Amino acid sequence: MQLREQHDFASEQSLDLAPVNRKAYSNGESAARSSATTTSRFGGAGAKAAKTTDKPKSKAALKIEELEQECTRKDEAFAHQKQAFEQEKDTLKAENEQLATTCTELKSDVDQKQAAIVELRETVDDLQGKQSSLLQELDGLRSHLSHATSTIEQQTSEIKDLHDKVAALEACVKEHEQQAIVDEAERRRLHNMVQELKGNVRVFCRVRPFLSGEDASADEQPVACLDGKTNTLASCACSANVFSSIKLTVHPSAMVLCSWQVFDRDSTQAQVFEEIEQLVQSSMDGYNVCVFAYGQTGSGKTYTMLGGDDEGSRGMIPRAVEQLFQRQAELAAKGWEYTFKASMLEIYNEEPRDLLATPGSATKPVISWTAPVSNLSEFAVTVPDDVHELLQRAETNRRTAKTAMNARSSRSHSVFRLQIAGENKAAGEVCNATLNLIDLAGSERIKVSKVQGKEEKEAKYINKSLTTLKRVFTKLSQKDGHVPFRDSKLTMLLKDSMCNNSKCLMFVNVAPTAASASETKNSLRFAAEANKCHLGTARANSGTSSK
């Protein structure tokens, strides 16, 4: 716009000056022609006169000269103006080209804008369609929100009611938990009362079945189980296979020895364990418990305690361990937390030996009067398989030898110890106990076992410790003030399991053959002596926990 205004102003000036320039130009041409005429007319005379003398110029000449000078100035001004006009023309031409380019660009921009407008209109149409769809969806969501709000209000009301019910149920649960603690304490009291009535020292007799190669004919069966009511021979087909008496029929003076219970040849491991599982429960209640198998070599002691690998032949030790872990899970619901630590040792020639020690270990267990055993490897066990692995390791390390009574006779007393610790934080109670499960070495006499040399020495140590065990039972049954616990490592180890706060059970294992009748008689006499023993009222190792 500014360039256009400048162009118009320059045009106006050129138009204003045009008449003057044309007039000046016309006057200039007239003066030139007049001068030329004068020169030609008076040329000759003038020349002559100039040559002869200089005459003063006339007014006309001066006027002509003045006009010529004016014409020259006008010509120069015209030339300058023409040059200015040419420059202005070039400038206007460049501006015009620039404006044309700008116009082209603007037209292109207008086309783009129009295309964008079309596209935007399409977008607007699309967005309006989406908006319509979203509005419909919004209406649906509002309806859903309204329904959800109504549902939430209803559920909030229901939740409040449920909270009230939960609070009531929690109060009821707490009340039942408190009652469960009271009931558990009462169960323990009644359970212990029943065990007290049965006796804190109990003796069970178990007759093993005939082995391959042994005569099982009726005439050669020196051991018979008697019915406790009729005192007559009982049928071995009895489903319970549990009797109250045992009779030696081949001995010169037939003898009947009464025991707490007698398990005949057909009794199973499960039936035998049923009679000791209550004692295993007592160990979780805080009572020291000792279960050991006594009898001659080959009478079934190790089978009774350890058993075989299949499910039905598992012995007392693996069954007791499984019961402990089962009860641990059950009592957890009543607030009790239990931990178990297992160890195993043998007493060989009056020397304790750690059956679970690391090979090459120089540390040896010590049995003393003040502490049952020290320097003994202990392993925390959390599942029955942990104990099974330990038993396999210990069985590999146990001392055995061949005798006339058994091809693989145990030459040491094997003791499996389980330390039990329980705590009920809610009730503020704790309990601790030791469960000893013992497989004693064979009790046969040297002249019967026919051992010599090293095995003879082993047999002497075995018989000495078993004799001491018998004397301990005798002194306890006689209420003697001096009980010879110190006379052997075995009785010193079992001291805590044969005192007032303990429960003790002895399996007397006997063989059914006539060849074993003499050893069976000695074993039954030992059982009769032990059965007379009474340890008094057992006391649990329990107390209150520090919270």
TrEMBL record:
<dbReference type="GO" id="GO:0008017">
    <property type="term" value="F:microtubule binding"/>
</dbReference>
<feature type="binding site">
    <location>
        <begin position="295"/>
        <end position="302"/>
    </location>
    <ligand>
        <name>ATP</name>
    </ligand>
</feature>
<dbReference type="GO" id="GO:0005524">
    <property type="term" value="F:ATP binding"/>
</dbReference>
<dbReference type="GO" id="GO:0007018">
    <property type="term" value="P:microtubule-based movement"/>
</dbReference>
<keyword id="KW-0505">Motor protein</keyword>
<dbReference type="InterPro" id="IPR027640">
    <property type="entry name" value="Kinesin-like_fam"/>
</dbReference>
<keyword id="KW-0547">Nucleotide-binding</keyword>
<keyword id="KW-0067">ATP-binding</keyword>
<feature type="compositionally biased region" description="Basic and acidic residues">
    <location>
        <begin position="51"/>
        <end position="60"/>
    </location>
</feature>
<dbReference type="InterPro" id="IPR001752">
    <property type="entry name" value="Kinesin_motor_dom"/>
</dbReference>
<dbReference type="Pfam" id="PF00225">
    <property type="entry name" value="Kinesin"/>
</dbReference>
<protein>
    <recommendedName>
        <fullName>Kinesin-like protein</fullName>
    </recommendedName>
</protein>
<feature type="region of interest" description="Disordered">
    <location>
        <begin position="1"/>
        <end position="60"/>
    </location>
</feature>
<keyword id="KW-0493">Microtubule</keyword>
<dbReference type="GO" id="GO:0003777">
    <property type="term" value="F:microtubule motor activity"/>
</dbReference>
<feature type="compositionally biased region" description="Basic and acidic residues">
    <location>
        <begin position="1"/>
        <end position="10"/>
    </location>
</feature>
<feature type="domain" description="Kinesin motor">
    <location>
        <begin position="200"/>
        <end position="533"/>
    </location>
</feature>
<dbReference type="InterPro" id="IPR019821">
    <property type="entry name" value="Kinesin_motor_CS"/>
</dbReference>
<dbReference type="InterPro" id="IPR036961">
    <property type="entry name" value="Kinesin_motor_dom_sf"/>
</dbReference>
<dbReference type="GO" id="GO:0005874">
    <property type="term" value="C:microtubule"/>
</dbReference>
<feature type="compositionally biased region" description="Low complexity">
    <location>
        <begin position="30"/>
        <end position="50"/>
    </location>
</feature>
<dbReference type="InterPro" id="IPR027417">
    <property type="entry name" value="P-loop_NTPase"/>
</dbReference>
<comment type="similarity">
    <text>Belongs to the TRAFAC class myosin-kinesin ATPase superfamily. Kinesin family. KIN-14 subfamily.</text>
</comment>
